Amino acid sequence: MAILGPGIDEALSKVARVIHPIPPGTRDILPDEMRELNALQATLAEVFAARGYGQVATPTLEYDEVLQRAGGRGGIGAYRFFDERGELLALRSDMTVPIARLAASRYAEADLPLRFSYIGNAYRAVRPQRAQMRQFMHAGVELLGAGAPDGTVEMVDVLSASLDAVGLDRAVIGMGDADLYNQLLAELGVGGEDRERVLDQLAAHNLVGLEMEVERIVGLDASGRETLLRVPALRGDAQSVIDRAHDLGGGAVERAIQRLCGTYDALEERGVTGRVQLDLGLLRDLGYYTGAILEVYDPALGHILGGGGRYDELLGNFGRAMPACGFGLYLERVHLAQMEEERLEGDGSGGGA
Amino acid sequence: MIPPTIEGAVRTRGDGPLKLALPRGALWEPTLDVLDAVGVDTAEMRGGSRSLIFESDGLTLVTMRPSDVPTYVEAGAADLGITGKDVLLEQPDRVVYEILDLRYGACRMVLAGRRGDASLGESERRLGAMRIATKYPRIAERHFEETGRQAEVIDVKGSVELAPIAGLADGIVDLVATGRTLEENGLEVREEIVDCTARLVVNQVSHKLRAAEVDDLVERLRPVVRG
After folding, report:
1. Chain A contacts of B209, Cβ < 8 Å?
2. Which residues from chain B sit within 8 angstroms of residue A209, using beta carbons?
3. Mean pLDDT confidence for A25-49
4. Whole-number Å distance between alpha carbons of A213 and A200
């Protein structure tokens, strides 16, 4: 401050500046950013609407008991509290579960499929000093009542169109199958605690731990071990992944990748594979995914931009069983990726591979 | 049908060489040895240069404290990194893919107390909890939790061995390579917690979008460290 000169420093110090804190992981959005975020939202809303997805909004607060119906870790809100009547409320942790609740309660008789889109805030727990947000903006669609593979194809198509519309030309959709590795374990006769331990390591993205756990499995032959270690490392260009999976050989692998290959063939038939890579090691951390699962990446950003997948059993928990799928993009990260891509382009160091 | 390309990603970052975060400190020398063995020239880094970034054989090498490696890799500021398992265990919520055990830098995380002194057990019996000084509070807390005991974990930054000698704590949880430092300070190992070695970690997006390059580096490193 001394650079301003003694007189000015003195004047400044007379203005009592009070700083009122906000909780870590939350932030204010000021006009410049808001303008860009609004434009981004408008762009996405237009893509969703053009494809027949009607935008809905649901309350930020729900009954905890209703969100918990999602089962697994998916439904558990990080922030729960009692209201004035002693009811346990939760801040929603995603939009998929509230929309499943909405569809089951308010569209019980409606013709299928149902198409909903949303743009809204959701809340998750964060670790301090990690640049994570506990409140984040999520934008996406839910397609309810359309099974695999047709529903999946439509979802990938809408996601690709969304990425086109926001100008992330280099963004990639990684597609896997939530049940693939599980099925592979079953095919190889790995069950019980072995199975849980192996899945834990894979979910933690720990390939060293995976190797150790696989080594410990009694009664698995060398080729079985090799299969369990190599399959989750297969990712990238679809044809190359499928070829390498075939090279590994064995009926177990063939059967485990069958459904994913079927999904990919369906995507190919409809010409929506442009951004799609296959990833046999993909596991989404939300418990309710059942079939195809997606993650979205942009090379300019070290974090995942969003994701989604099939959740064919979730609606059943709300009393109206039907196949369903959807995706959500983290709006702030998409915005960040746009900025990074612009910057890289400006540097002349960006551009396609 | 997508035309077959090089194995791995169709689209790659396309903005330069892979960035590898390297740990200064005890892992520094063996890390450079391993890089030499896979054909990455490290002569410039060995020269006592104060630079933090080096270019060598198609890699950008950035150097930092081992405990910062997961931070850079998680954010994508480095595609890959090398750091100790102790660092990864102490920062378990960092989202990085741990893809290779590099096997060097072996050491043990241990619980140690004063030689011939029963204060660890006595504190537990009479106070219900041990007082433990450590640079690894999360590993220490998890160890006591998993073994069904309570401990008052005191986070210190400098020489941990001082804490039981000066009376700050009954014992310490620390990383031990040879055990000489413990011995010189009148301490002895009471419990082994976990073995630690150097690990290769990778950013989750780089793992997907630069799959071929990442896998290539892993396949070059694997035979060297398996010796």
Report:
1. 172, 297, 299
2. 98
3. 95
4. 10
Return the closest-CA partner of residue B206 out of A78, A97, A299, A7.
A299
Upper half-sphere CA count for residue A107 (Cβ side, 13 Å): 18
Rounded to a whole number of angstroms, the distance from the CA of B212 to the nearest CA of chain A is: 8
Whole-number pLDDT of residue B72:
95
How distant, in Å, are the alpha carbons of A123, A139, A327, B91, B155 from that of A134? 5, 16, 20, 19, 27
Beta-bridged to residue A289, according to DSSP, are: none
**How do A306-310 and B18-23 pair as beta strands?**
unpaired
Chain B residues inside the 8 Å CB shell of A207? 97-100
The per-residue pLDDT for range B67-77, each reduced to its tens digit, is 999 999 999 99
Question: Rounded to two decimals, what is the model's pTM?
Answer: 0.88
Picking from B115, B171, B166, the residue whose alpha carbon sits closest to that of residue B143 is B171
Number of H helices, E strands in chain A: 13, 12
Name residue A82's beta-bridge partners: A88
How much is the pLDDT for B112? 95
Nearest-5° angle of CA A289, CA A294, CA A297? 145
Q: What is the pLDDT of residues A66-75, one digit of tens each?
A: 998 887 655 5
Smallest CA–CA separation between B3 and chain A, in Å?
8
ipTM, two decimals, is 0.88
Q: Are the beta carbons of A205 and B5 separated by less than 8 Å?
A: no
pLDDT one-digit tens code per residue, A272-321: 999 999 999 997 665 788 899 999 999 999 999 999 999 999 999 999 99
CA distance A80 to A45: 30
Q: Do B199 and A207 touch (CB under 8 A)?
A: no
Nearest to B11 among A131, A244, A299 (CB): A299
* From A207, A235, A298, residue closest to B99, measured CB to CB: A207
Domains assigned to chain B: 18-106+197-226 (3.40.190.10), 107-195 (3.40.190.10)
Provide the 10 A C-beta neighbour count for residue B128.
11
Please, what is the Cα angle at A136 between A135 and A139, to 5 degrees? Answer: 145
Closest CB from B9, B16, B211 relative to A349? B16
pLDDT of residue A344: 83
Chain B interface, mutation test: which of A200, A206, A229, A237, most B Cβ atoms within 10 Å? Answer: A237
Look up tokens 């001082």; give the residue. Answer: B162
Residue burial B43-78, b: 16+ Cβ < 10 Å; e: rest: eebeeeeeeeebebeebbbbbbebbbbbbbbbbbbb
Check whether B219 has a pLDDT greater than 90.
yes
CB pair distance less than 8 Å for A208 and B209: no
| Rounded alpha-carbon distances, angstroms, from residue A112 to A122, A268, A279 | 27, 25, 30
Report, as an integer, the average pLDDT of A79-94. Answer: 93
Is pLDDT at B36 greater than 70 in this prediction?
A: yes
Under CATH, which number does the domain A22-176+284-353 receive? 3.30.930.10
For position B13, what pLDDT does the model report?
45
Residue with tokens 């006592």: B48
